[in-house]
């Protein structure tokens, strides 16, 4: 099994990342998780990342108390921002299916996740509830990024309106709107070699005609995944996996 990944402060990683040697202290909540939950001990391997593409592999050198360990750096790895970059616009699902969608999208390899307040969403993020829900999505992406051994965690953006989603599609090299009546299968879409792909996943009630019109005017093209209709919490993952396989990012 590969070494576990923990999120570390970028400033602490900067020196060892440049030199390829030295030690890094991991403490606070991440240190507590490493010591008290994962029960890492001296001699065990570990990977520390800033979540932005830089990671250092090392060996636990010392453990102090319940939340502090020192890591002796053995190697450094840097991941460039992948191309094409995949942004998934996820309409708000009901209940905890939002966190499920974020978890699976992160594990699959999405680069950015944008929560979307579609007109047919049953769930609405307002006031304190919205702040709390967004925090859960970001926490889920962070934990899933570590679980997936990623060095570059996906950004979870602020809640977007339909107009803001249209702007994302306008700026994309390829804008995709998943729709069960889409004219072409996503498996046959012509994909860009670089730049950015924006993938829009509608709510359980579907993307409204007005939203489809707005997205089409912004360059968003309707595509279907296949003969079956997936739930909003799983459709984005299936589509992202298809795109990453076709672009060569999984090669």
Unreliable spans are none
Q: Which value, in Å, is the CA radius of gyration?
A: 20 Å
- Largest sheet, described in full? 7 strands, parallel
Compute the number of helices.
7
Percent strand:
25-35%
Distance between the termini: 21 Å
Number of strands: 12
Helix/strand class: alpha/beta
Output mean pLDDT: 95
3D shape: elongated
N-to-C SSE series?
A: EHEHEEEEHEHEHEEEHEH
- Spatial arrangement of strands, main beta sheet: 8-7-6-11-9-12-10
- Give the helix proportion (percent range): 25-40%
Give your account of this protein's structure.
The protein is α/β, with parallel strands linked by helices and 251 residues long. The protein contains seven helices and twelve strands. It has helices at residues 10-19, 28-37, 97-108, 127-147, 162-171, 209-217, 232-247; strands at residues 5-7, 23-26, 45-49, 54-64, 68-78, 85-91, 112-116, 155-156, 174-178, 184-185, 196-201, 220-224. The chain has a seven-stranded parallel β-sheet, with helices on both faces. Helix 3 runs parallel beside helix 4, helix 3 runs parallel beside helix 7 (232-247) and helix 5 packs parallel to helix 6. The model has no long low-confidence stretch (mean pLDDT 95).
Question: Helix and strand layout, with pairings?
Answer:
Elements: E1 5-7, H1 10-19, E2 23-26, H2 28-37, E3 45-49, E4 54-64, E5 68-78, E6 85-91, H3 97-108, E7 112-116, H4 127-147, E8 155-156, H5 162-171, E9 174-178, E10 184-185, E11 196-201, H6 209-217, E12 220-224, H7 232-247
Parallel strand pairs: 1-3, 6-7, 6-11, 7-8, 9-11, 9-12, 10-12
Antiparallel strand pairs: 2-5, 3-4, 4-5
